[in-house]
Amino acid sequence: FFFSRLIFGTLYPAYYSYKAVKSKDIKEYVKWMMYWIIFALFTTAETFTDIFLCWFPFYYELKIAFVAWLLSPYTKGSSLLYRKFVHPTLSSKEKEIDDCLVQAKDRSYDALVHFGKRGLNVAATAAVMAASKGQGALSERLRSFSMQDLSTIRGDSSSTVPPSVTVRTSSKQSQPKTSRSASEGTGSSGK
């Protein structure tokens, strides 16, 4: 069913719609527009009927026959359905449908703005929290240096010990930790 619907229900009418637009033949153009309106309604209805009627014998064959009936230039099924049912119904309900569409558009815009603001607030909160945690880590790192270590880092040339050896991560530890460059140098020579 899928391939026959794809070819006969979609590609064939699409090609002839293209030809109608290209030739600027109003009669053909209107004919294919009516077909597409009926086909859209059929596809929408099919979504629900497939759930309940798929067990019915020859259900898919009937759907193929219906699409063929819509397309047939002899039966003019899409034109018949459009003129008898769709056009009168849409004409009588057009104002209500337009109002519903405007309300739906406004609600969707409001929802988009609301969720956009919430998303920005969440992102801003996450950025502030990340920055404050980073600030806290920086201040903890700076507190762990002793005054002698800070004066050595500033470039106090009176000290004979290189700055990479005197840097301590905590004032509670009695052993000085070396920087990476110093430990890498001793670690690579020991290997």
List the helices and strands and how they pair.
Blueprint: H1 2-23, H2 26-53, H3 59-71, H4 77-143, H5 147-153, H6 163-166, H7 180-190
Helix pairs in contact: 1-2, 1-3, 2-3, 2-4
Keywords: Membrane, Transmembrane, Transmembrane helix
Biased composition (Low complexity): 157-171
Main location: membrane
Which of globular, elongated, flat, extended, rod-shaped describes the shape? elongated
**CA-atom Rg in angstroms:** 38 Å
How many beta strands in the DSSP annotation?
0
Structural class: mainly alpha
- List the secondary-structure elements in sequence, H or E: HHHHHHH
Number of H- or I-type helical stretches: 7
Uncertain segments are: 159-174, 178-191
Beta-strand residue percentage: under 5%
**Helicity range:** over 70%
Head-to-tail CA distance between termini: 72 Å
Mean pLDDT: 74
Q: Major β-sheet, in short?
A: none
Can you characterise this structure?
It comes from Anseranas semipalmata (Magpie goose). The protein is built from 7 helices and no strands. With 191 residues, the chain is an all-alpha fold. The chain has a domain at 1-117. The longest helix has 67 residues, at 77-143. It is elongated and about 90 Å long.
Short description:
By secondary structure, the chain is an all-alpha fold.
Key traits:
disordered C terminus; 80% helix; microtubule binding; membrane; 191 residues; mainly alpha; transmembrane helix; 0% strand
